[in-house]
Structure formats: structure tokens, C-alpha cells
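Design job #97: recover the sequence.
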């Protein structure tokens, strides 16, 4: 009998403004996230991870993969380009029917998935983004967390997507390390509390991560 999985989606902004130190910090943060999750028996047993990047294109750099099997690819950025967040959310919603195992008489389906979105700007595809918000709301995510990273991001643009919005003041390695460590804690909490009704309680964020009220 297969183990019930906790599917986790990460949507990461790779638009041109993330070039240089920010994207290097994201790569370091992802490695730390994976290492931290693998040290937790609950997460290691149940969590699977999918990473989608978005700039002018949407790329699934890591399809839904169990933690123990993940080999992280390097996240890279184009020289410049728009922020197609709406297209990324549509792509993730398209994946859900393929990725999420539903319950059958023979086996229990996966736990409700978690979605973490990180962007350092505003969606360039405004119409697509508005439509994608509706699809995300209709999808059966246990929780959706959006992170507005750096001074050019606009937390207000993320509020329609979710009431769980956090912000980073800077795009340096300390900020991203704090954010990904917090994501790790949230996934771990989700793996430990799977089966609980409603959205998992998010752990308090570190100093680098501010909750947007």
C-alpha cells in the first residue's frame, strides 16, 4: 500500500530582476530547504516537492518528486523579462489532476497540497493572474503562502491570491535563507499534522520574514 503523500508546490520568480545575488541566494536557500526537510522523519516519509519557475516562460524545473529522490537543478534567470505569475499558477493548477492521487476503495488519496509563491515584482500578465486566482481558490490547497520579496514587490498584489502574505525587505542570502527555512518549518508542520481539518498552522516566521497584515 502506498504512503499518503503531502504534495508541495513552489512557484519561484526568475524574471530578469532576480539575476545575480538574488537568484544565487534562492539556490542556496533551496539546498538548505531540502536538507532541512530530509532531516525530519515526518516530512521525509510524506512530502513530495514540485518547483515551477516563471519569467517570460513557465518552466517545471522539478516535477512532483519524493524528497528522497530529489536532485535539485540550478535555478537560472534570463537577462531581462516579464513576470508571468498568472501563467505559472495556471500551470500548477493544470498539474494537480495528474499529480494528486485521489482516494479509491483500495487506497487513501494524497493529503491536500501546499502552495508557496515567491515574487520580487508584480505580475506582468494581469488578466491571466486574475483568472488564475479563481482557479487557485477552487483548487483544494490546504494552504497558499505568497512572499513579496524585496523593495520592488507589492504585497497588495498578492492579497487577492491568499490571506497568508509575507514580505522580505531585501533580496540577499540572509532573507532567502530565512524564508526557505520557514517554508521548511511550514512543510514539516504540515507533514506532522496531516489529517487535521483545515489549513495547517504556520510556524512563526523568522526576523527576516514579515507577515503582511
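Job complete. Output follows.
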Amino acid at each position: 500500500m502506498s504512503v499518503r503523500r503531502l504534495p508541495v508546490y513552489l512557484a519561484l520568480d526568475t524574471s530578469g530582476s532576480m539575476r545575480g545575488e538574488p537568484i544565487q541566494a534562492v539556490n542556496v536557500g533551496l539546498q538548505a530547504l531540502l536538507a532541512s526537510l530530509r532531516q525530519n522523519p515526518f516530512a521525509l516519509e510524506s512530502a513530495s516537492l514540485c518547483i515551477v519557475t516563471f519569467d517570460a516562460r513557465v518552466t517545471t524545473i522539478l516535477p512532483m518528486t519524493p524528497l528522497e529522490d530529489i536532485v535539485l537543478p540550478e535555478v537560472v534567470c534570463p537577462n531581462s523579462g516579464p513576470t508571468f505569475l498568472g501563467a505559472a499558477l495556471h500551470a500548477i493548477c493544470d498539474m494537480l489532476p495528474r499529480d494528486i492521487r485521489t482516494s479509491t476503495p483500495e487506497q487513501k488519496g494524497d493529503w491536500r497540497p501546499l502552495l508557496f509563491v515567491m515574487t520580487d515584482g508584480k505580475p506582468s500578465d494581469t488578466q491571466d493572474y486574475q483568472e488564475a486566482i479563481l482557479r487557485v481558490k477552487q483548487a483544494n490547497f490546504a494552504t497558499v503562502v505568497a512572499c513579496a520579496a524585496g523593495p520592488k514587490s507589492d504585497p497588495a498584489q498578492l492579497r487577492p491570491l491568499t490571506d497568508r502574505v509575507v514580505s522580505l525587505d531585501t533580496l540577499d542570502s540572509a532573507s532567502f535563507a530565512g524564508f526557505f527555512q520557514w517554508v521548511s518549518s511550514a512543510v514539516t508542520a504540515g507533514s506532522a499534522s496531516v489529517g487535521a481539518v483545515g489549513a495547517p498552522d504556520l510556524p512563526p516566521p523568522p526576523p527576516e520574514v514579515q507577515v503582511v497584515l
